[in-house]
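Chain A, query sequence.
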Amino acid sequence: MTAVSEDETGALPPLPLPGERNCPFGPPPEYEDLRAGHPVIKVACPTGVDAWLVSRYADVRYVLGEPELFSNRAGVAAHILLGFGGRDVPVGEGEFPRMDGAEHLRFRRHMAPEVSNMKRINQLRPLVQKIVDRQLDVLANTPPPVDLYSAFARPVTTAVIAELLDVPEADRPLFQRAAEALNAGASSAEDVAAALRPLFEYLYMMVVTRRADPGDDVISRMIVRSDQTDRPFTDTELVSMSAALLLAGYDTTASLISHGIVALLEHPQELRRLRADPALAGNAAEELVRYLGVGGGLLREVTRDTEIAGQPVKAGDFVVVAIQSANRDGALHPDGDRLDIGRASGAHLGFGHGPHQCVGQQLARLELTAVLGTVPRRIPTLRLAVPFEEIRFKTNSAVLGPVAVPAAWDEIVPALETEG
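Chain A, predicted structure.
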């Protein structure tokens, strides 16, 4: 950063964001100085929002853990992408990620058993492993080079979430298109609504059908569970919940998988460790979540006058918590800028913290662990098909990661009997 306060014209410094080349795996280099000397600073965000930027681990954890002081109602990405909430945009029916307190908990307690409960996760483990191996079998019959993002990561995450919701394979491109349009950004709330309308129409018919004849899928189980309460979900609420699950479970995890693979290819000593000891896959997944983090940070709105690290903030102010910076803070790990798949994970903030932490984090861990435990063994000669310098990374997006991962290999070995 060339400045850490208003310049001569009174303009605020911009929110540091990952660029194409300067920080493909970590926070922009400015954050090291910010943590050391300016841990809470006012910045200008891409959507015109001015916000207090919080960069130290302890302060980020504090903000995320105090929802009564720092509300989620503006939308976590409204500082980066237009049309994703904002102070003047009403919270939609069922738009639980922008809710706080009891209203948020009402939705979360019905979703969590499907994607966070460890008993449920263990039940899903064979399914996820089968999906990973099946997609690798597809790659085995595809001459390289192949884009691992579009030909592996996205099909895996799409299949997992579609299996949970019992979406027929022929219909899955619908929510792929919706997720891509959403994460690419839009110029207004109207553009976002237009991109999502076909998906919402599809999900509405699905909800109506499942309500009339429940099956053994996430939507049906949420309907049945909700109908046993004194405030059952409306059809609109169920559509919003299903859409959130689909969209978050699709591209966010797919980008994490492809980003993690590239990170390992660029840290060959860590990839060799993982190939030699697949039991490190769970640890590697945790470390990659910490190491890669949430590049653009998360937005919160101050609900009443308070302080962050001694800096007064007023009700109505916006706050951006820099997750990547917090996860690299020496207070969490003295060597936080180093990728180490064997490190004890610690309390990283890659999935957030507090009541709004990612509801699907256990499912994301399961998918990433399955990939990391399988890909190095089945594709021992995996490599980038182009120089690393030619890999393009997403910018101005709520989801980080490579745009594409052109990869090559000599062979893909068959799955073990216990895997498939």
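Strands lie at 40-44, 50-54, 70-71, 146-147, 298-302, 306-308, 311-313, 318-321, 383-384, 406-408. The CA atoms of residues 46 and 212 lie 45 Å apart.
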